[in-house]
Amino acid sequence: MNKSIADLHKKLEAEKNIHTDFKNKMTYGEYLSLDSILSSQKRLSGHHDEMLFIIIHQVSELWMKLVLHELTAAIQAIEAGEMQSAFKMLARVTKIQSQIIQAWDVLSTMTPAEYLEFRDSLGQASGFQSYQYRLIEFALGYKTSHILKIYEKDQKVHETLKQAFDAPSIYDVAIKSLARAGFSINPDLLTRDYSETYGGDPTVAAAWEEVYRDVNKYWDLYQLAEKLVDVEDWLQQWRFRHAKTVERIIGFKVGTGGSSGVNYLKQVLDHRFFPELWDLRTKL
Ligand code: HEM
To answer: Do residues 205 and 276 touch, judged by C-beta distance below 8 A?
Structure first.
């Protein structure tokens, strides 16, 4: 045995307190349900690269779960006026988004030829059906109803989606904060039908403009606005990297979900979640 490895073994053996008897205690694997997580990579084609494809999606879904956990709590915190907690959660969301974006670098190592080896095994399955992705879009205010239909047969998911679809988004509660701070906000916005995607309002535009013109006076609202811009910016970067990676791997073929593929993915790049926060940059 190589000397440095032998030295390391000796040091480990000298660690008398390392726990090795788990007959009556919970292990790391049990705590994390690793049995179920690590046995959930079922390659349908048996092709080598399908493992990468499955894991990238699973990792992204796990991160999305945490994003949703943070976004939901941030919405509640903003509504309760607890801005500092919300800022912390939103900062975490953007760090996660940056992690998910890095995942595209790993996926790009898969060539079109490799993907074609197992693409047929996916059938009509597509990220388009990701309900967690839609829950994130709903939390940010982009309400598209088509995903609800996909989950009609799964009552629990359908209910969760419908609740999020009808609930105020993070931008709706941010607008309420503007009203609470004394800005004159169109009252219809405060009781609007939240299942509609927000389309913009001059009273909100005027309020944000005032916040940005006197950031010291409105420091919390200014921080909130910038955190929201961060989240939207990163989400659009994720969408861009997705579209570009898809183009690199399947060109302009139609998607397994039935859309036009890259052209469909490029359309959503023009959508704005928080329109006034982008418009004001030109006005200032
Ligand atoms: C080889 C890799 C990938 C390809 C070729 C691909 C392709 C596509 C295509 C063509 C669509 C449009 C819907 C359709 O017709 O299927 C789509 C949507 C989507 N994909 Fe992927 N994708 C890939 C990887 C991923 C990964 C790793 C994720 C992470 C979870 C993901 C998540 C999504 C989501 C959330 C949508 C819905 C986007 C929207 O409706 O705005 N995709 N994908």
So the answer is: yes
